[in-house]
Specification:
This protein is of the alpha+beta class and about 170 residues long. It has helices spanning about 25-35, 40-50, 55-65, 100-105, 135-145, and strands spanning about 5-10, 15-25, 85-95, 110-115, 125-130, 150-160.
């Protein structure tokens, strides 16, 4: 089975549709194995699939060149570092045109892990991690709510992350 995936190129944090690339069964197997463990040795993948390590390298270079693979990562257990509270902050802007300025300032807050431009009531949805509720309150009142252009915030504390995964191929 051939999988068709739209190819996107990254330009200044924006994705632009270019073309369609095809994934064959081997590409799909390689991606599945690396998505399970991005540190899996190339030779282990090659042995499992039944092709050479060089062929795996070539396919990975092609997938990276086409921006289908955009990196690999290690997941850190933040609780061991003392960060026990995860929250989502809906940020209301006084004017939509302040979005870029506000996001640039949010980028400076190290506890913010993700920031999304959204539809609906908020302009921005931020995911952040804090040491505890007191730390969250401090970040909200002294860092986020003091940013010029932020009209108000709405906070949701995560009690437990129940699903964490990538897309299934």
């Amino acid at each position: 089975m051939n999988w068709k995936i739209l190819e996107y190129s990254l330009t200044k944090n924006n994705l632009m549709k270019n073309d369609i690339i095809k994934l064959d069964g081997i590409d799909k197997k390689i991606l599945k194995m690396l998505m399970e463990n991005s540190r899996r040795p190339i030779l282990e993948i090659a042995k499992n699939i039944g092709i050479s390590g060089a062929a795996i390298h070539q396919r990975l270079r092609k997938l990276e060149k086409n921006n289908l693979i955009i990196g690999s990562s290690i997941k850190v257990n933040t609780k061991i570092l003392g960060y026990t509270t995860m929250a989502f902050i809906g940020i209301f802007l006084d004017r939509a045109t302040n979005n870029k300025t506000v996001v640039n300032q949010l980028r400076e807050i190290k506890e913010i892990l993700e920031c999304h431009y959204t539809t609906g009531d908020w302009s921005i949805l931020a995911k952040l991690i804090c040491k505890d509720n007191e730390d969250l309150m401090e970040i909200l009142t002294k860092k986020i709510q003091t940013i010029k252009g932020v009209a108000r915030t709405e906070t949701y504390i995560s009690l437990e992350q129940q699903i964490s995964r990538q897309i299934t191929l």
